[in-house]
């Protein structure tokens, strides 16, 4: 009997691995159990492009007694088909809730696949995030991602699957015995962010306030100073943050506190220090860019640093200027 069970398990594991989601030129992708009842499928650590089709975030799943709870399902309807299949390999249980960490479409446009499969699913996001995506952010991000992926956003809109349940700072959401605490810092990666604490497993999902191995946009609604403060609060267990077993970034590998948070925190600090120095010396941000790049030797292997750092430096410079007014 035992031998038969083992054999069946092996055959199942083998057939599942055969069917793992393969992206040509990048590799295979599947959910890995990272902590107790928590699974993450770490996406390609790169900018959205034709190769990854717009899949580069970290969809996560929390398994409860009667269902699955998904955090940031993914970047569009086309990649969402495979992400949904991978979610369903974790368990045949239905998806009973979804959380969206912020307004950028690479994290939530695949809500649509899950709504199709589970029409009653509750999708939580910050109330203000829902207002923003409905007003203009969804269309804006559709266009950006559609251009970068060579048209792979087709099917994600008309209509978009907007989050349908607003939450706010410090709200506690209970789903089937699993407890989630919402934390909304006024301004960090965007002004619509939720950091989500999963109490049962002691996991903190930081959304794009944390990245590792690649950078993201600091758009007009973001703040480098704010993002630095968020990561410092998490590290120092201030502002309600506690000790967690696992820290999950919006992009890049999950891990323990310092190995996961320090690199991005130090990157932002180096960029802001460069902006402050330039401003104090009546220099424009581009004039100090070579010096800042020199101070960022540890980050030269991160994806697209050439394309990203100058923009971040310019944004930091404008924040320094705004603080001086
Ligand atoms: Zn983002």
For the terminal residues, how far apart are their CA atoms? 76 Å
* Low-confidence runs of at least 5 consecutive residues: none
The first-level CATH class name of the largest domain: Alpha Beta
Instruction: Report the CATH topology name of the largest domain.
Output: Metallo-beta-lactamase, Chain A
The largest beta-sheet arranges its strands as: 3-4-5-6-7-8-9
The CATH architecture of the largest domain can be named as 4-Layer Sandwich
Kindly name the structural category: alpha/beta
Mind telling me the C-alpha Rg? 20 Å
Q: Total number of β-strand segments? A: 14
Number of domains in the coordinates?
Answer: 2
Helical residues, percent: 40-55%
**CATH 4th-level superfamily of the largest domain:** Ribonuclease Z/Hydroxyacylglutathione hydrolase-like
* Total helical segments: 9
Order of helices and strands: HEEEEEEHEHHEHEEEEEHEHHH
Mass-distribution shape: globular
Average residue-wise pLDDT: 95
The proportion of residues in beta strands is 15-25%
Instruction: State the major sheet.
Output: 7 strands, mixed
The molecules bound to the chains, other than polymers, are: zinc ion
What does this structure look like?
This protein has 325 residues and is an alpha/beta fold. It has 2 domains: 1-29; 31-257, Ribonuclease Z/Hydroxyacylglutathione hydrolase-like (Metallo-beta-lactamase, Chain A, 4-Layer Sandwich). The chain is built from 9 helices and 14 strands. Strands 3-4-5-6-7-8-9 form a 7-stranded mixed sheet. Strands 10-11-12-13-14 form a 5-stranded mixed sheet. It has a two-stranded antiparallel sheet with strand order 1-2. Helix 8 crosses helix 9. The model has no long low-confidence stretch (mean pLDDT 95). Zinc ion is lined by residues 102, 104, 189, 208, 216.
């Amino acid at each position: 009997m035992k031998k038969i069970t083992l054999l069946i398990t092996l055959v199942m594991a083998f057939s599942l691995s055969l069917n793992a989601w393969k992206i040509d030129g990048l590799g295979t992708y599947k959910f890995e159990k990272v902590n107790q009842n928590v699974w993450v499928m770490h996406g390609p650590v790169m900018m959205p492009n034709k190769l990854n089709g717009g899949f580069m975030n970290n969809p996560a799943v929390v398994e409860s007694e009667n269902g699955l709870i998904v955090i940031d399902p993914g970047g569009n309807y086309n990649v969402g088909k495979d992400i949904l299949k991978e979610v369903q390999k974790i368990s045949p249980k239905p998806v009973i809730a979804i959380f969206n960490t912020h307004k950028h479409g690479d994290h939530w446009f695949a809500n649509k696949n899950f709504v199709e499969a589970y029409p009653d699913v509750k999708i939580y996001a910050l109330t203000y995030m829902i207002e923003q995506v409905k007003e203009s952010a969804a269309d804006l991000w559709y266009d950006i991602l559609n251009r970068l992926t060579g048209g792979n956003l087709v099917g994600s809109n008309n209509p978009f699957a907007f989050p349908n349940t607003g939450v706010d700072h410090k709200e506690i959401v209970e789903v089937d015995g699993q407890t989630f605490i919402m934390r909304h810092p006024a301004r960090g990666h965007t002004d619509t962010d939720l950091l989500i604490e999963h109490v049962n497993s002691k996991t903190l999902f930081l959304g794009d306030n944390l990245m590792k191995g690649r950078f993201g946009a600091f758009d007009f609604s973001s703040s480098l100073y704010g993002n630095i403060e968020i990561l410092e609060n998490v590290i120092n267990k201030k502002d309600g943050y506690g000790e967690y077993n696992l820290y999950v970034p919006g992009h890049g590998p999950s891990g323990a506190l310092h190995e996961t948070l320090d690199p991005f925190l130090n990157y932002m600090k180096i960029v802001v220090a460069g902006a402050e120095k330039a401003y104090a010396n009546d220099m424009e941000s581009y004039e100090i860019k070579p010096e800042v790049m020199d101070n960022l030797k540890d980050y030269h292997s991160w994806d697209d640093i050439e394309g990203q750092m100058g923009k971040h430096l310019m944004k930091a410079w404008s924040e320094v200027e705004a603080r001086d007014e």
